[in-house]
TrEMBL record:
Pfam families: HTH_IclR, IclR_C. Residues 6-67 form the HTH iclR-type domain. SUPFAM superfamilies: GAF domain-like, Winged helix' DNA-binding domain. This is Transcriptional regulator. Keywords: DNA-binding, Transcription, Transcription regulation. The lineage of its organism: Bacteria, Bacillati, Actinomycetota, Actinomycetes, Kitasatosporales. One of its GO terms (molecular function) is DNA-binding transcription factor activity. InterPro entries: ArsR-like_HTH (IPR011991), GAF-like_dom_sf (IPR029016), HTH_MetabolicPath_Reg (IPR050707), Tscrpt_reg_IclR_C (IPR014757), Tscrpt_reg_IclR_N (IPR005471), WH-like_DNA-bd_sf (IPR036388), WH_DNA-bd_sf (IPR036390).
């Protein structure tokens, strides 16, 4: 801790992070042990977070992340979209295909930013807000590949005809961005993705990740 930071706020944020990392909640004693502070401090932290609906406690006394976090989370997509747009524009113009940023939303892939090329005669219409299962389409498959990969660079994923007949896709996951799970990709009307597209998508995903760090 430095002189410019708040110890109480730091502890409150640590409580939220600990609760976000568990599905079954934590007791006051468990939080006290993990934070290295006494139970009285934890009670005060939880009471304050409860007032803002960021934490809730069940009948058994276990603390869990509250619904107030969702209201904060709704502001994440616009910020992520804004940060990603320069890299997506460059990708779309370079490849001549529709570029997109896709994030995980529950069990689905959600396109949160889409950029279409300006110079092509035709391209795939792909809209922000489009959802599809994670196990269909390059965007979702790239995210699943990143989950399964042991390396820091899972590479890129290619698909054809999984979401739209005659369309091919390429996508690469965002790597090293805390709290954001997603991918950057392109979709094009082609029987196969040209060889240079995969590495170019990986570069774009790296640019977006750097912008979000």
């Amino acid at each position: 801790m430095t002189a410019e930071t708040s110890q109480t706020l730091d502890r409150g944020l640590r409580v939220l992070k600990l609760l976000a990392d568990t599905d079954h909640g934590l007791t006051v004693t468990e939080l006290s042990n993990k934070l290295g502070v006494n139970r009285t401090v934890v009670y005060r932290l939880l009471a304050t977070l409860e007032q803002h609906a960021l934490v809730r406690r069940d009948l058994g006394g276990r603390a869990r992340v509250g619904l107030g976090v969702l209201r904060l989370g709704r502001q994440v997509h616009p910020l992520v979209r804004e940060a990603a747009l320069p890299a997506l524009r460059s990708l779309a113009e370079d490849i001549g295909a529709t570029a997109h940023l896709t994030l995980v939303d529950g069990t689905e892939a959600l396109a949160v930013a889409v950029v279409e090329p300006t110079w092509t005669d035709y391209h795939v219409a792909y809209r922000a807000g489009f959802r599809h299962p994670l196990d269909r389409g390059a965007a979702g498959r790239a995210i699943l590949a990143a989950r399964a990969a042991a390396a820091d660079e899972p590479g890129y994923t290619l698909t054809h005809g999984e979401l739209e007949a005659g369309a091919s896709g390429a996508a690469a996951p965002l790597i090293g961005v805390t709290g954001v799970e997603g991918s950057v990709g392109v979709v094009m009307l082609a029987d196969a993705v040209p060889e240079r597209v995969g590495p170019r998508v990986v570069d774009a995903a790296r640019e977006v990740a750097d912008a979000l760090r």
